[in-house]
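Hi W., the L-homoserine complex you wanted:
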Amino acid sequence: MSKVAILGFGVVGSGVAEVLQRNGAHIGEKLHGSVELKYILDVRDFPQSPFADRIIHDFAIIERDPEVDIVVETIGGARAAKEFTQRALAAGKSVVTSNKELVAKHGFELMELAQKNGVSYLYEASVGGGIPIIRPLKQCLAANEITEVCGILNGTTNYILTRMIRAGLSFDAALKEAQENGYAEADPTADIEGHDACRKICILASLAFGRHIDPEQVPTEGITNVSLADVAYADSCGRKLKLLGRAIRGEDGRIRAFVAPHLVEGENPLAGVEDVFNAITVRGNAIGDVMFYGRGAGKLPTASAVVADVMDAARNKDRPKYLDWGPGGESVTAPPDDVVSPWYVRAEASADALRGALGEITPLARAGAPENETAVLTASMPLGELKSRLAGVKAHSVFRVLED
Ligand code: HSE
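Structure:
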């Protein structure tokens, strides 16, 4: 039998309590032993909640209770969550988390601490919500040398882009809908500026390439610069605008990781990933391309992944799982400037001026475009070359075009 404490009774934490209760009998049968929710730590009280009797406000009660062997951390952020995680691991309790910020920033040291104390630190829910991706990447694809991981990693931004593309909604109206549906982070800046996707690509890249990749090493651009004009131009050439997180291993062995809006060819499976859904493609030298798809955000899909980790920790008390990676450092990554691709450029310039600056171009058209606006696709070139060619051009949007 395992006793569980949940830290943070927000969207995910309350989902975990609900799944543990609703599926308790089924979980018990699978484990040949029960999993009981003993405490919920939060600064707030929840008098109307069916779990009100389990709410506590002092972490030390959990830390000192030898009955609690699994702690679920759904606080988020990297402050209190880090301290409580360290204290729980040091007290010999396994920790299960959905906290991508903490895993992306401090995963390496927390995994080391878990190993030192003979317990598990599991984080399947930190990337892709309910999509199984952490274990498949670490275990099922272990025989491959992975060359690229690429994905739609943020449900909120994918929802916003989908609503802009399909319903012509403004960015603000689409964001409001995403927040009402409980997809967005407490502060949606982390979603729309790409930080959430950055944390997730860091976790995937660290696992895939075996070395810690810190969010500070990953150039990140969100979708705040994507306009309905860009959506229309992308549509005119059979492409969809998607926010992608990518991590590519160069021939020098260093990782080029970045988050940025991309134009994705309509036939690419990533173009068909809509609403809050996420998808991750992994390219391995034995398997080729493999894609993982599912609900990337939301209370119950994320809770589903958390509870599966709780079951894993309960099942493997004596043989903890280590889904770990090695230390990071500056030499692990390289700037993505040498990653070559065609580019989409929308500028305040004539087509001739853009041709002069960019060389071979394919001009695009949209209804209602102002006279001085030109949008084009370029030939393939690295970011460095594009930047120097664009010197002196008043460009409003510059996005990569995803190649096969
Ligand atoms: N805000 C995140 C998203 C939640 O929209 O994908 C899941 O990590």
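DSSP finds 14 helices and 15 strands in the chain.

W.
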